[in-house]
């Protein structure tokens, strides 16, 4: 399960400048800087030091962002769903549950999207996995943990807990979260211990995301709800609620 590292890195670095500026907690900023360092090290393994900079140096500025919106068609809209099946719009998030920018979106925009669009019947929201395991070692275990929680009707609860705590994930964290959520912890541990569990489903999400140009997380496809896939636009990055609000209003008006 390997993505093209150069593409992943290019998009993730583009998010970093905005994310570091918006987050005020020292721990979160430190994690972002560490992620930038890891990304740069991966790039240097492929192509040597960037722009003549010393090996391992952390970039002080982000490159120009990639285009944030273009038209795409997502053939498969299965996944874990929030909202009405017949909502006029569908929004698919491709997420890496260890990604700090996915945490930023979740804490700064998702709840308002849920309140104003999902809970009001305007939007069907679908979560799909896009774990970037080359830089996030707990991304796939986190995706499996959320799906195992889903077997006990706790997918969205587990997803939320993982995201808000993803700066400090470790091998024991998921079972702790399961206990906090009053789940059957033994059944959960059995599920998460199976490395093949949900592997095909996670790979399917990665394949479908790649088919519409998803290269980093979080990324979204938004369009009119249809039984025959999703014709819509691709939005990239942990953008503020106002960006999603404007796009959703525009699509509803059409």
Structural class: alpha+beta
Strand content: 5-15%
Mean pLDDT rating: 82
Q: Do you know the CATH architecture?
A: 3-Layer(aba) Sandwich
Q: Could you tell me the radius of gyration in angstroms?
A: 18 Å
Which sheet architecture does the biggest sheet show?
6 strands, mixed
Poorly predicted ranges: 1-23, 43-68
Overall body shape: globular
Q: Any idea what the CATH superfamily is called?
A: Glutaredoxin
Our measurement of the CA-to-CA distance between the termini, rounded to an integer number of angstroms, reads 38 Å
Question: Number of helical segments?
Answer: 9
Supply the number of structural domains. Answer: 1
- At the fold tier of CATH, the topology name is Glutaredoxin
Order of helices and strands: HHEEEHEHHHHHEEH
Task: Summarize the SSE layout with pairings.
Blueprint lengths: L4 H18 L3 H22 L21 E6 L5 E3 L6 E7 L4 H19 L4 E7 L9 H12 L4 H10 L8 H8 L4 H9 L5 H13 L7 E6 L5 E7 L4 H13 L1
Parallel strand pairs: 3-4
Antiparallel strand pairs: 1-6, 2-4, 3-5, 5-6
Helix pairs in contact: 1-2, 3-9, 4-5
Label this structure with key terms:
9 helices; 14% strand; alpha+beta; 6-stranded mixed β-sheet; 49% helix; globular; 254 residues; single chain; Glutaredoxin
Q: How is this structure best summarized?
A:
The chain has 254 residues and is α+β, with helices and mostly antiparallel strands. It has helices at 5-22, 26-47, 100-118, 139-150, 155-164, 173-180, 185-193, 199-211, 241-253; strands at residues 69-74, 80-82, 89-95, 123-129, 219-224, 230-236.
